[in-house]
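ESCALATION

Customer reports they have been waiting on this structure for their group meeting. Please prioritize. Original submission:
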Amino acid sequence: MISVLLLLTYLAIILLIGLLTSIISHKFKIPNILMLLLIGVGLGRIDYRGGPLIEFPELFITGISIMALVMIVFDSASRFSLKKIDYFSLHTLWLSLVFLVFNLIFLTAFTMLIFDVKSIFLALIFAALMAGTSPAVVLSMFKNVKNKVFDFLGLESLLNTPLVVLMPFIILDLKTTLKDELIIATFIDQFVPLLQQFVVGVGAGVLVGLIMFKFMRKAYSAVLSPLAVVTSALLAYIIAENLGGNGVLAVTSMGFLFGNVYLKQKFQLKEFASVFSNSLEILVFVLIGIVIAIPFSNEFLMKSILLFALYLVIRFVSILFSLRGMDFTLKEKIFMSLNAQKGIAVAVVVFSLATLQIEGMQTILNLSLAFMLYSIILSSLVFRTANFFIKDIVER
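Update from on-call: job pushed to the front of the queue and completed.
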């Protein structure tokens, strides 16, 4: 049994590594999450006295994954405001939906074919995850630059995050309920239990949110209000799960409600939730590299790179299909196609899935981590050649 002091030592080391990598990545303009992932992968492959150098109890990892999942889901859902919907955002949302559907159809098929994945549900989970984009880290290199392409990529990541976080758990519920058999008759028989999970999840999130907002509308406390937000998000997840509902859907519903109602000092509350979720990023990105022992065999690398190339083709076709009529050049569409960087939302879902003991899941986890590395590296390289793809980049 690992001692408390040793556990705290591991945490301190990881957080220190996170601080140092942040400084180094900022100085050399390297994505911080890429360095954290590589450090995690490196630490996970170091043996010490016949065991891993850094090892955490399974209960601790599960707790961290749930906490990170709840905060990331709430933070992303709360940033979706109905008031900001316009022509530009509708096209961005349309791209997110088209890319998700194309992934669920084509990437699922390619994954099952190339990696011989037996369960269609596991392949669907991977395909749904890969629909997520998060170019925020790389876009920070162009924080003083104004361009519609950068604005589009940033808005896309904001809109597709709730979908990407929610879909894998809905598919996982389907897998559990249908007992890994995608049969119409079985689906019809299990429709009521599935609907109950969704209704309970949404109901729990809305109920907890309404109770919290009723009290928070009357007064704001710099100390208690942010704590109430975090506590309410956790309560929504716990209540939904204990009642047989979808906890992620509950947090999503509450976050969406939070982003669209009037509250005193809402901006400060959002910033607190964002800072709290960002503080978990270091742990998640390092731990995901430690927990998932990605193989570096020639066969895996060749197959995963082939699948990633097919994935980029799917994204390019999705962009061509969904952005018809918009004023984007072919080079700009290629630039957007090559920028499908995975961020904290995908990482925290993969981290949560890694805590589940599901047969065949290891292949999906390995592919997810490989795609995260490939997409971040490719996005970083493409952004350094942005002037070739994009004209008229204007300083703000």
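Sent to customer with the following note: The domain at 4-395 is CATH 1.20.1530.20 (Na+/H+ antiporter like fold).
Escalation resolved.
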